[in-house]
Structures are given as C-alpha cells and as structure tokens.
Write a structure and sequence with these properties.
4-stranded antiparallel beta sheet; 8 strands; 54% strand
C-alpha cells in the first residue's frame, strides 16, 4: 500500500449501524422451573467502543432491579461487546428467602444474531442458579 493510500472505510459523516442487544436472565430462584426475563436495548455500534447504552429498571414493589451498561463495536460481521450487569430479582410471591445481587463485568466477541451464554453463577447459600444469555444483532 502506498503511503498516501488508506484502507476503505466508512465516510467520515456516514451513519454506522446500530446494535440491538437482548440480555436474558434465566433464574431458578423460587422453584425448580427457571424464570426467563429479557431486557433489550439499542446502541450505536460505530467507533471503537466509544458509544455506550445504559438501562436502569426497578421492580414494581421497588425490591428488585436490573442495571446494564453496554458498549458494542462492530468488527466485520461480529460484535465486540463490553458489558456490565447488576441483577437482583423481586422477592418471590411466597415471601421466600432474599438473595444477593448478581454483578458482572465482561468483555467478549460474539456473532451477530446468535445467542451466547456469557455467564453462569450459583448462589453458595442456596440452590439458586443464574444464567446470562446475550444476543447482539447488527441492524443494517
């Protein structure tokens, strides 16, 4: 490549694709049947992880919450994702045992549109198990 030639890339002011991020929490709290709760967010995928989406939600009774920070970058047909999550479910309706929050910060690559299990945890004091599944999709 000649010194004055640059690799092709997006035009300086062109709009880059957004990334839809679906995060599912599969939680066995309160029974043997896992409960699946999914939150979604749309984040700008251009640049080098400089864009960030933030989602904050509190349960109806104010006892549970989910906090998510996501910073995606599109690399080819895949996505490089920096993700921080905090998750605390509401108390079960039967007034079951209170559990601690799940808090994780992860950086990983994943293919567009395919679900990937990015974390699994077990509460050391109970039989609670939480799986975190992420699907990130490039919207062109």
């Amino acid at each position: 490549m000649q010194p004055d030639q640059r690799p092709p890339g997006p035009a300086p002011n062109s709009l880059q694709p957004n990334v839809k991020i679906d995060i599912s929490f599969i939680d066995t709290l309160g029974g043997d049947t896992p409960a699946r709760k999914t939150v979604s967010m749309l984040v700008y995928g251009g640049g080098n992880g400089g864009r960030q989406g933030r989602l904050r939600a509190t349960g109806a009774r104010g006892q549970g919450y989910v906090n998510i920070d996501a910073s995606p970058s599109i690399i080819g047909d895949g996505i490089y994702l920096n993700l921080s999550i905090e998750y605390l479910p509401e108390l079960p309706p039967d007034g079951g045992q209170r559990v601690g929050p799940l808090s994780q910060s992860l950086t990983f690559g994943l293919p567009s549109g395919k679900p990937v299990v990015v974390a699994q945890s077990v509460d050391p004091g109970t039989s609670r198990r939480v799986t975190v599944e992420v699907t990130a999709t490039i919207l062109r």
